[in-house]
Amino acid sequence: MFNNYEVANKISNGYLITVFGELNQIGKQKPYFSVTHETWKATRKGKRDKRYANPVSFGACLHDTERKFPAIADLFEFHLRDVDGCPMYEVENGAYFIKNNDVKALANHLLVSVDEAEKLIALCKGADDEGIKGTLAIYIYENNLHEIWKHKADNLIEKYNLKVHESTL
Predict the structure, then answer these.
(1) CB 73 within 8 Å of CB 63
(2) DSSP secondary-structure letter at 51?
(3) Number of C-alpha atoms within 13 angstroms, CB side, residue 90?
(4) Are residues 54 and 103 in the same domain?
(5) Which residues of the chain fall short of a pLDDT of 50?
(6) Is 36 a domain residue?
(7) What Å distances lie between residue 122 and 3, 4, 49, 89, 115, CA to CA?
(8) pLDDT for 78-99, tens place per residue?
């Protein structure tokens, strides 16, 4: 059905939008989830219009692209997480969201409910940077988030048949 790393496509307002998913690896680093898109002008038959040499847009999926593909929302939320499902700079970025009282970003970062994120922010109220990081690290450990993230990552890899793509920079 799909080519290479393609996980979904659709025609929208005369454009063919294709979403790609893979486990990207640069050098010896741990592979990470990468979800990107290409948007091309489409023919009336819903194929890529080859009269155009370049896509209309490509790269990281923005919220507009994500809204057009609700069936693969589970994959979008893993963009830039490592192969084990851990978010990038789990403690540092989480602490940043806590300090900035960004409940939604914290919930998305940790893959927890908004209620859980609000409780964690309240728990860290008044703490300094090291206190916030320590509290967050304990929260991640006590709530088995690494195991939860790993389980979800493994399921996504199987569901979308994701393969490691080695990149060179």
Answers:
(1) no
(2) T
(3) 20
(4) no
(5) 1-3
(6) yes
(7) 47, 45, 53, 21, 11
(8) 999 999 999 999 999 999 999 9
Burial class (CB in 10 A: 0-12, 13-18, 19+), 146: middle
Do 142 and 111 belong to one domain?
A: yes
Structural domain total, the chain: 2
E-strand spans in 13-89?
A: 15-26, 32-41, 57-60
**Element (DSSP H or E) covering residue 8:** strand 6-12
pTM for the whole thing?
Answer: 0.88
User: Would you state the pLDDT for residue 169?
Assistant: 62
Cβ atoms of 37 and 17 within 8 Å: the answer is yes
59/72 Cα distance (integer angstroms):
17
Q: Which of 162, 2, 168 is nearest to 83 (CA)?
A: 162
Domain of residue 32: give its range.
Answer: 11-84+157-167
